[in-house]
Amino acid sequence: MSIIEVKNLNKAYNGTQAVRGITFSVEKGEIYGILGPNGAGKTTTLEILEGLKSPDSGQAEMFGLEVAKNNGGIKKRIGVQLQHSEYLPALSLKELLELFAALYHKRVDSSELLNFVGLGSKVNSYVNELSGGQKQRFTLASALVNEPEVLFLDEPTTGLDPRARRDVWELIRQINSKGITVVLTTHYMEEAEYLCHRVAIMEQGKILKISEPKKLIEEIANTSQVSFFTSDNVEESWWKQVPEVEKVYSNYPKVILEINSLDSVSKILSVLKAHNVSFSGFSLKTATLEDVYLDLTGKEFESES
Ligand SMILES: Nc1ncnc2c1ncn2[C@@H]1O[C@H](COP(=O)(O)OP(=O)(O)OP(=O)(O)O)[C@@H](O)[C@H]1O
Ligand SMILES: [Mg+2]
Question: Ligand 1, from 20, 43, 45, 293: best to mutate by most atoms within 8 Å of Cβ?
Answer without folding.
Answer: 43
